[in-house]
Amino acid sequence: MTKTSPETPKQPIEAKDKNRYAKAVQDGRTILSEGGSKADAARAIYRLIHDEHREVVLRAFIEGADVTPKGSPTYHYNISRKFRKQKSD
Fold this sequence. Notes:
The chain is mainly alpha-helical. It has 4 helices and no strands.
């Protein structure tokens, strides 16, 4: 006898401030279109929405900085570390 469980799709976590999220994604896209790097775009996104849930920031990196879903946690880790270090200086 096999046990089956209904697949419940995980609801994505919503941004606290949808306007700020949209601006962060747009700023990231603008940086890319002006020849900036993915890291430049991700840093700009993080500066605007660093107080959002991690999942929201990762989604913004994917949408606004063309970071891959597998690469976004690495960008988050590196950028958030540098950001915290700068704040404590």
